[in-house]
């Protein structure tokens, strides 16, 4: 399979090599939805950006349980489990959290499976069934299983390591996903860490640096293949250290499609900072800081802030 690295390669060069992608997935009995997916044209894509800010809730699942984990401490091997830092483990199921978000009319939340075990997959599917069409799902998503989660009720699938494979962006894999589930159902997780004063996209439990750096060119190129971005500021995620304002500003300035930032929110003022730094174009998710996950930040206050933003500035908060 041909891979494509953006390191030292022009985005314009990549797009000019395959402006229209016709895939063998069309008409495949294994992927029936691909039959109605139009061919991908990089030149014909139009982008829209919402000028309001939403709170995107989350359900992180580890071994079937809803947990808040410092993501950068997560490993695959059993020997490395001693490094895992867990901020919170809930006695409520993933489905119960999904029902809460449905009651509060919060859409576009992220169900993330922090492992490929059967218990986590079952819990994720229960959450999707509890709030069909209201949640996105990520964690181990690939070409073979992506459509199954859509069929279980996910509005989108979230993908990172499958596309940024072995430190490089695999454009053929990305195009394959678009042909199976459609651009309108695909979220690219562009979580990143600082490297040489730039933001490098990281994969494989956020341990491996890719050679793709998050900047205006990359954000515009990848918008041809995704409906939204999800970006964790890995250096601050789960650590309650405050937000990465520089990263938020980059996203607000350059993302041509909806983008959600995660990482470091502690107090309500952080939400306003994200709103300002992101120019009203960057949504936010909050995890460990929320009282429903053992933190001190009121979930109800965050929902009220969300509703205020959706109504408009003339409403009292």
From TrEMBL:
One of its GO terms (cellular component) is chloroplast. GO terms for molecular function: 1-(5-phosphoribosyl)-5-[(5-phosphoribosylamino)methylideneamino]imidazole-4-carboxamide isomerase activity. It is an enzyme of class 5 (isomerase). It holds the Pfam family His_biosynth. Pathway: Amino-acid biosynthesis; L-histidine biosynthesis; L-histidine from 5-phospho-alpha-D-ribose 1-diphosphate: step 4/9. GO terms for biological process: L-histidine biosynthetic process; L-tryptophan biosynthetic process. It catalyses: 1-(5-phospho-beta-D-ribosyl)-5-[(5-phospho-beta-D-ribosylamino)methylideneamino]imidazole-4-carboxamide = 5-[(5-phospho-1-deoxy-D-ribulos-1-ylimino)methylamino]-1-(5-phospho-beta-D-ribosyl)imidazole-4-carboxamide. Keywords: Amino-acid biosynthesis, Chloroplast, Histidine biosynthesis, Isomerase, Plastid, Sodium. Its EC number is 5.3.1.16. NCBIfam families: hisA_euk (TIGR02129). Belongs to the HisA/HisF family. This is 1-(5-phosphoribosyl)-5-[(5-phosphoribosylamino)methylideneamino] imidazole-4-carboxamide isomerase HISN3, chloroplastic.
């Amino acid at each position: 399979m041909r891979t494509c690295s953006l390191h030292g390669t022009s985005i314009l060069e990549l797009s000019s090599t395959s402006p229209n992608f016709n895939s063998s997935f069309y008409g495949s009995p294994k992927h029936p939805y691909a039959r109605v997916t139009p061919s991908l044209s990089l030149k014909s894509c139009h982008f829209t950006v919402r000028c309001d800010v939403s709170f995107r809730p989350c359900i992180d699942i580890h071994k079937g349980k809803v947990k808040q984990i410092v993501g950068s401490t997560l490993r695959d091997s059993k020997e490395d489990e001693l490094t895992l830092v867990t901020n919170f483990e809930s006695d409520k199921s993933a489905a119960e959290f999904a029902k809460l978000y449905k009651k509060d009319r919060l859409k576009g939340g992220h169900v993330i499976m922090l492992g490929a075990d059967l218990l986590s997959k079952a819990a994720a599917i229960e959450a999707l069934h509890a709030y069909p069409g209201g949640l996105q799902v990520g964690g181990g998503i690939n070409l073979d299983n992506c459509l199954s989660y859509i069929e279980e009720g996910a509005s989108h699938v979230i993908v990172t390591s499958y596309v940024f494979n072995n430190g490089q962006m695999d454009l053929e894999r990305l195009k394959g996903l678009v042909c199976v589930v459609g651009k309108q159902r695909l979220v690219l997780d562009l979580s990143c860490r600082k490297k040489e004063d730039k933001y490098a996209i990281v994969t494989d439990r956020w341990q491996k640096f890719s050679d793709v750096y998050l900047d205006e060119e990359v954000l515009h190129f990848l918008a041809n293949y995704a409906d939204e971005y999800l970006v964790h500021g890995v250096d601050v995620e789960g650590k309650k250290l405050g937000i990465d304002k520089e990263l938020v500003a980059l996203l607000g300035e350059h993302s041509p499609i909806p983008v959600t930032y995660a990482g470091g929110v502690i107090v309500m003022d952080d939400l306003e900072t994200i709103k300002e730094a992101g120019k009203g174009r960057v949504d936010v998710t909050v995890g460990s800081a929320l009282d429903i996950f053992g933190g001190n930040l009121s979930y109800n206050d965050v929902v009220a802030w969300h509703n205020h933003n959706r109504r408009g500035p003339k409403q009292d908060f």
